[in-house]
Design brief:
Helix content: 40-55%
Largest sheet: 5 strands, antiparallel
CATH superfamily of the largest domain: Transferase(Phosphotransferase) domain 1
Strand content: 15-25%
Distance between the termini: 43 Å
CATH topology of the largest domain: Transferase(Phosphotransferase), domain 1
């Protein structure tokens, strides 16, 4: 078993499941929390994430298959998507894929799912299709405000991690998003994004 990533909430390991590569996600204990409460929270979040992975696949979003859930260890064994992170692709490739990413986010929102961590590192290009990973912060929500927070985050990531191509990438993302959610919802969400940006604690993104 190989450690791939140490995170604040969980560690990711590369391992095997039957004859395939797999990812094991183990939620960390929090020593500052009461032991029973910590165990309960980690179990609940593990259940929620595994259910969400199955749910989004039910309406066609490419995401990892869940192989096994161990509630005692607060772990999820899931399919490894062996492609390349969108974050690490060429600028031209990111621009070209941004419309597909917008369609995926639109599909999530149309089906009442807020991802909660929309970064370009959580989209994987595999076999010419973009897959979505890491639903650890996701939740079911039809609230426009929650959907706007999702869009605000990916807009912010494009502006910080991909500043040179922010404008064409964001434009393509919005084209894809609007094609799924429709004009009325699109107008409502994008207006809310601007409202969020106008608040003092947020830096304005062009």
């Amino acid at each position: 078993m190989k450690l791939l990533k140490k995170g604040a909430e969980a560690d990711l390991y590369q391992t095997r499941w039957q004859s395939s590569n797999a990812i094991l996600k183990i939620r960390k204990t929090k020593p500052y929390r009461n032991f029973s409460l910590d165990s309960k929270i980690r179990k609940q979040r593990t259940i929620k994430e595994s259910q969400m992975l199955s749910f989004v696949k039910s309406f066609g979003v490419p995401a990892p298959l869940v192989y096994f859930v161990n509630l005692n260890k607060a772990s999820i064994l899931m399919q490894e998507i062996p492609g390349k992170s969108v974050h690490d692709l060429s600028d031209s490739k990111i621009i070209g894929l941004s419309e597909d990413i917008g369609k995926l986010v639109g599909t999530l929102h149309k089906n009442g799912v807020m991802h909660g961590d929309l970064t370009t590192s959580n989209f994987i290009l595999f076999r010419n299709a973009v897959h979505v990973i890491d639903f650890g912060l996701s939740q079911t929500s039809i609230k426009p405000e929650d959907h706007a927070v999702d869009l605000r985050l990916i807009k912010e990531i494009l502006n910080s991690a991909h500043a040179k191509i922010m404008l064409p990438s964001w434009k393509n993302f919005l084209i894809g998003y609007r094609s799924i959610v429709g004009l009325a919802h699109y107008d409502k969400i994008t207006k809310l994004v601007l409202e969020i940006e106008s608040r003092g604690r947020y830096a304005q993104v062009v």
